[in-house]
Each structure stands twice: as C-alpha cells, then as structure tokens.
Amino acid sequence: MTVLTRWDPFREFSTLQDRMNRLFRDSYTDREEALTTSTFAPPVDVYEDEHNISLKIEVPGIDEKDIDVRIENNTLTVHGERKFEKEEKEENFRRIERQYGSFTRSFTLPNTVDAEHVQAHYDKGILNIQLAKKAEAKPKQIKVNVGSEKALEGKEAKSVGRAA
Q1: Which of 9, 61, 84, 88 could form a disulfide with 36 if both were Cys (CB 3.0 to 4.6 A apart)?
Q2: Does 62 fall in a domain?
C-alpha cells in the first residue's frame, strides 16, 4: 500500500529554527548572570487632566534609592535597577519569571509642563510622578457674546435714517 504524504516546504525551516533555539538556549551556562544583565521595561500608565499629567510606573521589588527621576530638555527619564538576590537552594530546579536588571524609560514632555513643579512618590511598588501644567496652558472658559452693542447701535441708526 502506498502512503501519500503532503509536502510542506516550511517543515525544514521549522526544524532548523528549533535547532537554533536549542543552540542559543544551551549556550548560556550561567543563567543567573544572564538574568542580572538583562533589561526590562516596567509598565506605565499615563493620565492627564486640566491641572496635571500623571505617570504611574510599576516597579515592585526596587528600593527607592535605586530609582532616578530626571527632567532634561523636555524629556522625563526614569532609570532604575532590580537586583537579583542570590538564593541557595538544595533543589536542582527552580523557576524564575520576574525580570531583573536595569531599566530606562524616557518620555517627551509637552511644552505645557512646568518642570519646576514635579513631584515623585513611591509607595507599594508604584512610582507616581505628578507633572504640573503651566498656568497659561490650563484651559480657560471664555464667554461667547452674541452680537455686539456697537453693531446693534449701528443697525438702529441705519434703520432710523431709512425711515426719515
């Protein structure tokens, strides 16, 4: 009996990719060293209202002394580092999913931000940065008048002149 097999031109590429992944994975002999030198980007939420722009950055497990917040040339830069604590365990297997190493996040600020009035607060793993807006950048309510008194006076004078 003859068996028909469907030919897949990409099957060889899949096998090659698996072999390359295994090669790179096996090349790391010291996994802890690789973890300490990696970089990551903590998630950030950005909020804006009429008075402030607020950033909330998730940086749990990082000491406040390891966080640096700077504003330079209309750019807010947050730099920090989560250090890998070496643990000695008797088991041969352990799973590490948290990311370690240094991070840098930069944000271009709009011209409406007052760089002199910035506050940063760190609590329970959340870095909260408040950027105050300049007074001239805050929205102003402008009353819209319908017509003008001078225009109304001018129309009345023309209508009186026509009647005469």
Answers
A1: 84
A2: yes
- Number of residues written out for the chain: 164
Give the integer Cα–Cα distance in Å for 123 and 135: 29
Q: Do the Cβ atoms of 136 and 129 come closer than 8 Å?
A: no
Measured CA to CA in angstroms, residue 91 lies from 29, 34, 35, 52 at distances of 18, 20, 19, 50
Q: What is the DSSP string of 18-40?
A: HHHHHHHHHH-S-HHHHHHT-B-
Position 158 in a domain: no
Q: Is the pLDDT of residue 30 over 50?
A: no
User: Which pTM does this prediction carry?
Assistant: 0.58
Strand order of the β-sheet with 113-123 is 44-48, 52-58, 126-133, 113-123
